Amino acid sequence: MAVPARTCGASLPGPARTALSWPGHGSRPGLSARRPAARPPRPLSLLLPPLLLFPLLAAPGASAYSFPQQHTTHLYWANYVKLAPEKGVACFKTSPLIVCGMQHWARRLEQEIDGVMRIFGGVQQLREIYKDNRNLFEVQENEPQKLVEKVAGDIESLLDRKVQALKRLRLIILPSPKQRLRILARGPPAFLWAGNVAELKSRESHGDATQRLADAAENFQKAHRWQDNIKEEDIVYYDAKADAELDDPESEDVERGSKASTLRLDFVEDSNFKNKVNYSYTAVQIPTDIYKGSTVILNELNWTEALENVFIENRRQDPTLLWQVFGSATGVTRYYPATPWRAPKKIDLYDVRRRPWYIQGASSPKDMVIIVDVSGSVSGLTLKLMKTSVCEMLDTLSDDDYVNVASFNEKAQPVSCFTHLVQANVRNKKVFKEAVQGMVAKGTTGYKAGFEYAFDQLQNSNITRANCNKMIMMFTDGGEDRVQDVFEKYNWPNRTVRVFTFSVGQHNYDVTPLQWMACTNKGYYFEIPSIGAIRINTQEYLDVLGRPMVLAGKEAKQVQWTNVYEDALGLGLVVTGTLPVFNLTQDGPGEKKNQLILGVMGIDVALNDIKRLTPNYTLGANGYVFAIDLNGYVLLHPNLKPQTTNFREPVTLDFLDAELEDENKEEIRRSMIDGNKGHKQIRTLVKSLDERYIDEVMRNYTWVPIRSTNYSLGLVLPPYSTFYLQANLSDQILQVKYFEFLLPSSFESEGHVFIAPREYCKELNASDNNTEFLKNFIELMEKVTPDSKQCNNFLLHNLILDTGITQQLVERVWRDQDLNTYSLLAVFAATDGGITRVFPNKAAEDWTETPEPFNASFYRRSLDNHGYVFKPPQQDARLRPLELENDTVGILVSTAVELSLGGRTLRPAVVGVKLDLEAWAEKFKVLASNRTHQDQPQKQCGPNSHCEMDCEVNNEDLLCVLIDDGGFLVLSNQNHQWDQVGRFFSEVDANLMLALYNNSFYTRKESYDYQAACAPLPPGNLGAAPRGIFVPTIADFLNLAWWTSAAAWLFHAQRLTHTNLLFVVAEKPLCSQCEAGRLLQKETHSDGPEQCELVQRPRYRRGPHICFDYNATVRRGAAALTCSSPAPGLVRPCAPPAPPARADRLLLVSFHRKIPQTAAAEPLSHRRWASWCPCSCCSS
What we know:
This protein is α+β, with helices and mostly antiparallel strands. Among the domains are: 123-135 and 724-919, no CATH class; 159-359 and 554-605, no CATH class; 364-538, 3-Layer(aba) Sandwich (Rossmann fold); 624-721, 2-Layer Sandwich (Beta-Lactamase). The protein contains 31 helices and 42 strands. α12 (381-394) runs antiparallel to α13. This is VWFA domain-containing protein. GO terms for molecular function: metal ion binding; voltage-gated calcium channel activity.
């Protein structure tokens, strides 16, 4: 192929010509630099590239600039001029000239790329094919407002059906005859009173809407007759942990041999639950540290058995229901349908009372101040118990709560950098837990200092807080002072702040003052003598906080929807609708009702079920739906992909962390939290799917609230996704014709076809192997038609239409072309309909892109960018270089096909080619040379010759590379760099990449990935941290600049038009260079943003709309020091409990497995982008 002859623009300037600079960059004088004596000064020249983005302005007196170095002589390229002290500039006509070489080479590269894409890409031809088949499809419009309102309504309906199921659970369902006989055999028919049944039937027949979910549990418990002498063999239930305990020889139940009361069930696989289940029974899970044979637990199992029929009836009315769960305040979990418990590898620490959904349903938001006595008497084991207790207390808080932790002796001070109440989110709690470990015991006890600090914290109205339940939690070993004057000053007579006191450790101090403090301030007193008592006693305060909810009655019976969290039974990410269940028993005839919460009822909704209500394929590859809650945490978002989840904590990804944050998105987030509707078009940054690139794009945001919930729904659409194609293949003959091009028998002539693994039909078997999936698809299509009711006609018709359209592209363009002539490995087309056609067929063997176009980085980036998008093979610096011997390594070049039909613009497909890397590396050298024809002999240019240097002949002197907009190497004139194509250029040439960055050829955007998991650090490094990736983007401006290291050297860069490539030419230094700092494009550990600074500017949020924090009728202790009158066996008194004579309380049992003193640090769930610094200041 003939290469166009080079033509230069302006003639050479005379000696008086001034240097030029890009606008916006001021003139800077040349700086002297010392060169090694081994190489004499050799002036090189270079003409500035054509203007790309801004007009070129003359700046008299301007010169290229260099960084100061420890050398006296410096060289630079600046329009074949060298700075002369006397005259400012001078021309050296005897130096080796490049003249307008780079401008010319860049133009030749652009022409070659454009020519190949015009001939083989088939953009214009594919446009014509679509227009020729205009009768086979319709252009539909996405109307954002109508679309988002419809989806919001569908989600509202889905959640409302679950709410109705919760309401049905509150209706009394009479036991079956078999159950009735079993109940009668055990004892008095407590909940078969004729009067009660008649009343309930009457209320149900009138359809009283107030009979909701928890009524069933409340009435069952109210009718239940407490049995002091109940035995384990009296209770028959399915113990969900029984099978795991039988397999564990160290299990206490195996040792005791008590399995007579446990049912043995058969299970069937259910894909909806991702588990084996039994629909005839409920399952029971009891925490490891609770004795199953205690009277409390046995009575709890007895009355909750009646819930089984309610669960079954619920599922009969709504077969889509997932887990239905009752979490008891005693720790018992009863769930339906029954399934074996997922036994962890270590000891099972699951306790329903610490689950996010239970905590949210059992109490209103909290403002909590934890004060810890660190006087000299608190040392050794007692201090360790306090530290662990504080950490466990923090785990009982949710994102709706606010907290601070302080230590005190003679003075009080915060344990961390937080000087006021902060949101109890995962990151803030981590700061507290780390800070607590640094507490040291010294000084004397000063309760007054501790309580005054705590009350001041709670009275600070200048900060964001929960503004609901206010409480002080004090951990101490004991003391004599009652600090009554402090309570009189801050809390009496209204007692709006509850005080909970914890006596920690084994000692002989008088605990009466601690009991008095708690009971006179509507709190509670607990003892923590050993590590086994920590978990149970740091969570029982929730029972006290539930009292105002019980007294509020029906007003508090409101369904709340939780944050996203990981289901403990393997369902994946879920949200849960919760309702509190109240104790309706009375202490005696004519006395007040009990003030305790029995537990929380919950029904799970899988996120996947909500996602199915959103349009997946009409929004295009870059359109999506998202939803957030009142905290700004996402419920739905394509970037919600937690790599690891902690079942004890919810998955809390803020909307501004799910996307790249900017001011416009902050406004959108605030409006959504406030429950407003809105629409906004913004220019924003988006990260590519492979997380290697950042693009600046236009997006349309539309949002509405989801009624009857705390969620708000948003829709994001690119402008080119306003319209989409809908196939109209009513002609069955044409359907069959196009379908035949999906058959493997057609691949040899028509190219290989990959189909996106979508849910085309209900009976289609999914497979990760696309060949197998295609086989399953073809077999199903031989049984059903594309118009079948069991199939998604939209997906199926569009797939078949795109099969035919891409086949016509093969017929019109690809089949008659010789790919080898242009050094192409393959040509391809991918469509919105889910077709990826690769030609020729043999190229499919080395095709590594995902068969789902919407999940392919090249596809999504091509839609967002004009022109040709280069994608080199992805390489990891830790892996070995590319193997070029087999001639299958290629570079993808793709571009979007834009259609304009009746004034409506859309982009339904992407086409491209796969370049042979080695062949194009050779071609790159020829195109960046001074040869006018590839057969022209090479002409060597030496330092003293008068010819022009180029990238082919002078590859020992010049480094010529193409780098993409992410900073990855695409092509090089250095043969030894060919196997490094696809690597971040800093790994290839750290100094040159740093120069490009320092001179604004690339800019960076810093963000954190809070969902990532870090690999363990090697020995010698302490702590766990998130990982980060440096993702640069090409700046909107380019400037000529110097960079110097050991020796001064010049580079010149120019962006190739209509591509994402930067063409760089640099002089190769003769001496070895020290890497002053390497830009990182790999996962690196980071502590993330500084939390102490972030809490000073908290993100906007709103808490729950209703608060139950204070009720004048809540009872408090008097002289007897009894905070409440407990129901039998459910609440312990404030006075020091005497050792029980029999097992009639929730007894704590020691673990039978050896528990390590310190668990392995959990990996942080965030990752940092774009952090780098010179090696002299970085330790990792």
